[in-house]
Each structure stands twice: as C-alpha cells, then as structure tokens.
User: Fold Bifunctional oligoribonuclease/PAP phosphatase NrnA from Paenibacillus sepulcri.
Amino acid sequence: DYTRQLDQALQFLQGADRFLIVSHVQPDGDAISSTLVAGWILRQLGKQYVMMNEGAVPVRLDFMEQSAAVINLSKEQPLSETYNRIIAVDCADFRRIGLVSGLFAEGAMLLNIDHHPTNDAFGAVNLIRTDAAATVEILYDLIIHAGFALDSEAATAIYTGLLTDTGGFRYSNTSPYVMQVASQMLAIGIPSHSIADRLLERMTKPQLLLLQRALSRLMFSDDSQIAWLYIAYEDMAETGAIGDDLEGLVNYALNVEGVEVGVLFKETADGNVKVSMRSSGKADVAAIAKSFGGGGHIRAAGCQLEGPLSAAMTKLVNAVSEALAQ
Ligand code: 5GP
Ligand code: MN
Ligand code: MN
Assistant:
C-alpha cells in the first residue's frame, strides 16, 4: 500500500550517499519542481546529488531556488560519470527519461516517483499515486512521512508544481487535498501572487506571435467536436519562439465551445510530429496516444508521429474521430 511505498522510498534515499535526480525530457513545471523538491529532501538527509534533464529549465521557472543547478544534458559536454542510484520524478515510463538514462551505471537502482496513470512501475522501488494532481504532491507526502519541516524553498517548489499541473487550480485534478497542501504552502509565506503572475499571465512577444500563427490555422472536424492547430518547424525561428512558448497553446483548441478534443501538432527538426492532445473527458486521449506509442492522462496526453505534418494530422484526427464515435 501507499504507506509502505513511502517507507520503501525513504529507505532507498537513506541507503546510499549519492544520487542522480532526473525528470522527463523537455521538463515542465511539475518536472522541475519535483526535481528541486527531491533535491531538497536529499539535503535534509545529508546526501549528495546531481540534478539533470534532457532539456533546459524553462525561463519562467528559473525563479525557484536551486533551479540553476539543474543540468541540461543536451547542452553540456558529454559526461562520462555514471550513477548507481537514480531518482526519476514525473516520468510515466523509462523512455521519458531520454538521454540522461545513458548515465545510469550497469545495475543502477532506480526510485520511480510519479502520478501518471500510465506509469508502468519501471523502478526497483516505485512510489506512485495516480490520483495525485502532480508529482510534487507525492513528494509532499514523503516530506510529511519523513517528518521534515517545510521551508519557503520547498514550499515554493511544491506550490509551483501544483499550480502548473492543475492549470492554476482549475483542472479536474484540483482535489480538496491539492487545496489543503496549497493552503499550507501559502501559510509558509511563499510569494503566490508573483508565481501566478509569472506562470499564468505573463506572455513573451515570440509566444504571442506564435499564438497568432497557430490561431490563423485553427481547424475543426465536420461535427466541430475536434479542433486542431499546428506549428511548422520554421514558425519557431521566424517568431523567435522556443519550446516553452508552446505551453498552453493546445488549450485554445479545446476551449472552443462544443469541442471535445483539442490537438496541437508540432513539426520537429527531423520532420516528425509531436502531438499534444487535450480532452473534455468524453474521449480518453491517453488511450489514443498509447495506440501511437505515447501516453499521458485521460484528459491530457501526447505522442510522436512520423511526418509529413499533413499525413500525421489526418491520421491522428481520424483516430480521435473514431474514439469519439464509440
Ligand atoms: P503535453 O501535451 O503537455 O506534452 O503532455 C501532456 C501529457 O501527456 C503529460 O502528462 C505527458 O506526460 C504525456 N505525454 C506527452 N507526450 C508524451 C509521449 O510522447 N509519451 C508519453 N508516454 N507521454 C507523453
Ligand atoms: Mn510533467
Ligand atoms: Mn506531473
């Protein structure tokens, strides 16, 4: 049960001196926050650790303490060092770890801390609670279980992970428990207004230019239950946008009255297509994503498709259509 998982996770952390903490490729708010909270827990235990991801810490998240210490593997020179003890946070499966898995020593032991329903328990030790809104919520449980006193550094990261994975406490995963935990973080005195302003309100100019292009191409299925947008590879350079600027774009498709599934297609450098899907709940987009080798949650999921863009769009929209017809 869950208490036993918390015990085993704590034993895992107490059982070695040095750890590698990793989250998923192109880390989001919960991924970075969870990485930082895991690091904070290890510091309470007097342990050494390195934090690393494939992909940079998004600029809007760099206000968090210790975020500058998170290494972006793809940008640093190749590291020859390997690690025996790994903590993977917010990764639904091993593949989500990306390039960083190349630094795992042979026979390395991995602690898998996650909230995705599609998590396949790939760790030697698994701490998984699929009704948690964010991985930071599980790390909060671990902190309480271990009896550590929260400070503003940890509270800020926990709050940020909750805020981002609940879309600003609006998605259906915003449980009473989320609000209880968030309330405790507010009581510690974190700058919640500036965090919300930075993460929910602020837009960069490239972000707005990208949105302008995406909206100009908004398309609907005949019955208007599916809406989709796309970003061609050259759009990024032409608007000056970076990967972070795609965050939230897919919601413009889902938020249209009557739309059940919103999709964003993003052409990548290799000509393939990254798909982001959002559902009102009528269709299970995790199941659709899974049928294309991806995964996620019922209402938010993703996968990669082979290019060209137009063929990928037709293929995926057809699959969504079929799922909605069932
Ligand atoms: P997003 O659309 O924001 O990239 O991802 C939405 C959700 O789907 C996230 O919870 C993420 O973990 C999951 N997801 C997105 N892309 C993939 C993918 O390629 N593979 C898997 N397994 N999950 C994905
Ligand atoms: Mn995530
Ligand atoms: Mn998450």
About this structure: The pocket of manganese (II) ion (ligand 2) is lined by residues 24, 28, 30-31, 90 (CB under 6 Å).
